[in-house]
Specification:
The chain has helices at about 10-45, 50-60, 70-80, 85-110, 110-125, 125-130, 135-160, 160-175, 180-205, 205-215, 215-240, 250-265, 280-285, 295-300, 325-340, 340-355, 385-400, 405-420, 430-450, 460-475, 475-485. By secondary structure, the protein is mainly alpha-helical. It folds into two domains: about 25-245 and about 380-405, no CATH class; about 250-320 and about 320-355, no CATH class. The termini are far apart.
Length: about 500
């Protein structure tokens, strides 16, 4: 019988050295794994608001309308098969979120210590961490947008094009998590095309030379950008409407605006298909309307909670399936009412924005969820000691500190954009497109938002800690160009 050779001490030493090098190089990803599973442990099996309960209902029994984004329901359907309830989505979202942070740190920050600092601060920052345990469409949108950004930066780091295609898929998924998420995704597609323009001369030299000789480079990039946006819009349109009742959710925001204008102008602007028989008067609307949440119009039970004076027992069916002609008629009525009463319209949205941005210190509106709302599935949440300690920190941050003053994060991003034009940073364009993405998303909320929920700031919060890091850690363009010349 042949005896097995004894291990060579040099081989063993080289393997140990290789392991040490591997751990040093990829330690940030192992750290992200620990953070992800720690977060799962804190929130397990996951928080669920009424929106979450409704989406789990559709995930289990079929999607019949697009009141809630169907794509999230489809994804939840599969995770629910593996781990029933919210736990599967909790694990999925946190693995993506923490590894996206780790990838951004890996490709943009040189010193390992600072990589750990960035991931820990960004991930455990209370306004962000407070939402990671909730199965919300906002959280899903955030994590896929973040992973899409990480892949764009990874393509820049590798000087390869394949991460850009995966990034586009992430942007598609993010766009499918919220009806207005396309506002945040479109500028990210521009960022993909910008990175494509940097890589094309190196990865597709023949195509680049042909386009350059023919003077068609700019037309090529514009075509790719417009085509990608078109593909995104069309495919999302199919996902939102395929085999489901299209409630045209934006119509709810228009009705909310019409009620707000009616209350302020003491004139009834409500269309007849939202007011059968004309039974709802302006006085009734005054007992329904709250600038805090659109649900005050359709749910009499929450009007006292929302501080509506003299609550009315009547309700408006704010979510209903309109015909195409009714939807067009509603749009015309909305445009006319807004143009004729622009001050009332802006006052309504000013109050919404004031709550959204948390202008008044320590008064965020609906900053987080802490448990599982009543549901027909028998799902309950029993807080552990660890969970209680974490939630006490988050509660203190929300109501006894300025950390939830959302306007600060909008200001940080604006200052980063200003700085990106003053100096030649490597990631200047990335910062600028992130700012466009986050502000466009805010604009969509401002124009069509139906409450001042703090969670609507989730993408701006993310950009507010990404942008400064990209500016601080990015090399100047001159150094980058010199490096590229040497490589070439």
């Amino acid at each position: 019988m042949n005896k097995l050779p004894l291990p060579n001490k040099h081989t063993t030493a080289s393997r140990a050295a290789h392991t040490v090098v591997h751990l040093r190089r990829y330690s940030i990803f192992y750290f992200a794994q620990v953070c992800a599973w720690f977060t799962v442990l804190v929130y397990y099996p996951g928080y669920m608001s009424p929106d979450s309960v409704a989406q789990l209902m559709q995930a289990r029994f079929g999607v019949n309308s697009n009141v809630y984004p169907p794509l999230m329901d489809y994804i939840w359907h599969f995770t629910d098969k593996v781990i029933p309830g919210p736990a599967g989505m909790l694990i999925l979202h946190n693995i993506i979120f923490w590894h996206a942070l780790a990838l951004i740190a890996y490709v943009t920050i040189r010193r390992p210590t600072w990589r750990f600092v960035f991931v820990a601060l960004a991930g455990f920052w209370p306004p962000t961490y407070g939402s990671l345990g909730t199965i919300w469409k906002d959280v899903g949108m955030q994590v896929f947008l973040l992973f899409g950004l990480a892949l764009i930066l990874y393509a820049h780091y590798l000087r390869r094009m394949w991460p850009l295609w995966i990034s586009f898929i992430c942007l598609f998924v993010a766009g499918g998590y919220r009806h207005n998420a396309i506002a945040a995704a479109v500028p990210m597609i521009v960022l993909i095309v910008v990175e494509l323009s940097r890589l094309l001369p190196h990865r597709q030299a023949r195509l680049y030379r042909m386009l350059k000789v023919r003077g068609a480079l700019r037309a090529f990039y514009v075509t790719v950008a417009i085509g990608s946006m078109g593909v995104l819009a069309v495919t999302l349109g199919v996902v939102f409407t395929y085999h489901v009742a299209d409630v045209k959710l934006e119509t709810t925001a228009l009705v909310y605006d019409l009620v707000a204008i009616s209350v302020r102008q003491n004139t009834n602007y409500l269309p007849p298909y939202y007011n059968p028989g004309g039974t709802i008067t302006v006085d009734d609307m005054k007992g329904m309307y709250s600038p805090l949440h659109v649900n005050s119009l359709g749910d009499p039970s929450i009007r006292t909670f929302l501080h509506v004076a003299n609550p009315s027992p009547k309700a408006i069916a704010i979510v209903q399936t309109l015909s195409d002609s009714q939807a067009r008629d509603l749009e015309r009525r909305w445009i006319a009412a807004v143009l004729d009463n622009f001050g009332s319209y802006m006052e309504h949205h000013r109050i919404l924005a004031e709550h959204l941005l948390v202008v008044k210190p320590n008064q965020p509106w609906y900053p987080y969820v802490a448990g599982i709302d009543p549901n027909p599935f028998g799902l309950t949440f029993k807080p552990s000691r660890l969970n209680k300690e974490v939630m006490s920190i988050i509660e203190g941050s929300a109501f006894r500190s300025p950390l939830y003053s959302a306007w600060i994060y909008y200001l940080v991003v604006a200052l980063c954009v200003a700085a990106s034009f003053l100096f030649e940073f490597e990631y200047a364009r990335t910062v600028q497109m992130l700012a466009v993405s986050s502000y466009l998303y805010f604009l969509s909320i401002f124009m069509f938002g139906m409450s001042g929920d703090f969670r609507y700031n989730i993408w701006m919060l993310t950009c507010a800690y990404i942008c400064p890091v990209l500016l601080l850690m990015g090399r100047r363009k001159a150094a980058v160009e010199a490096t590229e010349t040497l490589v070439a």
